[in-house]
Amino acid sequence: MSCNNFKLRLNSEWVLENPMGEVLPLAETMRLLAAIDALGHIAGACRACNVSYRHAWGVLRGAEKAFGAPLLETSRRQGTKLTLFGQRLLWASRRVDARTTPAFESMVSELQEELKGLCPDGHDYLRLHASHGFAIEGMMKIVNQIHSPSIELRYRTALEALASLEHDECDLAGFEVPEGEFEQPVLQQFAKWLDPDKYCLIHLATRNMGLFVERGNPKNIQGLSDLLNPNIRFINRQIGSCTRDLVDLMLCRLDIETSRILGYDNSEFTHMAIAAHISSGMADVGFGVETAAWRGGLSFIPLVKERYFFAVHRDRLSDPIMGQLFTLMQGGEYQSYMTHLVGYDATHLGEVQTMQEAFDDNLRGLANA
């Protein structure tokens, strides 16, 4: 096997250990619960998980015995659904996956980059630093299937990614900028790293950002002002993330003190982790991209749009491997993925823009500041 054809993987696994030290693996239980939750009956879940009906029941009954709580409710008219305990267990698993997957992927990418550098048949690859997002997730799935272009991804905040680009530690730096009144203050944070004479931008998409709430919005949350309600629990993004910075800007514009928001200091690292937090009943509202709310079965309240870019050295645009990236972006598979990604507008996907073309008056305002 060529040294550049391997793909490392690092996965988390749930296990249940009793006081006697006996361990029960829960990976199959979680897969079955997810399938039952999606399909509403065990027969369909068995087909989806490629296991027999008898085997599935054995796995689920074993888990119920270990937990000492039922996981399923079955009726002739309504099929099979998860109990409240089963639902909470499934969403706890999803929350862990949403929190750990970016960290695992970044660790694996770093190790794989080191190992490939030791290979005699090593070849050129693109180093991408970006925050975790659905456009990046879809791109990497395709890259891992076709092995072209070769991309080594490390998850970083936007500021970390842009600083890495400036220090020649990456070739592409992902960052997002809100449209409208918040564009200039966000650009002000990035100005140190965005030299218009050195860099240009590759446009990925425009995405909808807003509030995630429980389906049907039972607490009638309409906007950020409702976070002042002492009965509403908020889940925030981590310090340093662009999403948290945007929330802070919006709260400041509304003259809302963060100390008055229940849960403001509680944070998660991805949009899906925010959604999982709310779906599991641990919070009432969070802020993020619409895709995560849709995947989590939540209602979404749009508040602002933001554009997502890759910053790149002007001199690298003509590199052959960069041409492979544009071929992927313009290819039917990625175009189809982005077109069907809820909350994303990929109209300008793959377009190269100068700083002036992308930000116009706001960039001139920064230059004159």
Notes on the protein architecture:
- There is one protein chain.
- With 369 residues, the protein is α/β, with parallel strands linked by helices.
- Among the domains are: 15-91, Winged helix-like DNA-binding domain superfamily/Winged helix DNA-binding domain (Arc Repressor Mutant, subunit A); 174-315 and 335-368, 3-Layer(aba) Sandwich (D-Maltodextrin-Binding Protein, domain 2).
- Helices cover 43% and strands 21% of the residues.
- Strands 5, 6, 7, 8, 9, 10, 11, 12, 13 and 14 form a 10-stranded mixed sheet that branches. It has a two-stranded antiparallel sheet with strand order 1-2. It has a two-stranded antiparallel ribbon with strand order 3-4.
- A hairpin with a 3-residue loop joins β3 and β4.
- The protein is globular.
Key structural traits:
alpha/beta, Arc Repressor Mutant, subunit A, 13 helices, 14 strands
Question: Can I get a quick summary?
Answer:
Helices cover 43% and strands 21% of the residues. The protein has helices spanning 27-39, 42-49, 53-67, 84-117, 134-146, 158-166, 183-190, 242-253, 271-279, 290-295, 320-330, 332-339, 355-368; strands spanning 15-17, 23-25, 72-75, 79-82, 126-130, 151-155, 172-178, 199-213, 234-237, 267-268, 285-289, 299-313, 344-345, 352-353.
Proportion of helical residues: 40-55%
Oligomer: single chain
Low-confidence stretches: none
The CATH class of the domain at 174-315 and 335-368, by name, is Alpha Beta
Write the CATH homologous superfamily of the domain at 174-315 and 335-368.
Periplasmic binding protein-like II
CATH fold-level name of the domain at 174-315 and 335-368: D-Maltodextrin-Binding Protein, domain 2
H/E series = EEHHHEEHEHEHEHEEHEHEHEHHEEH
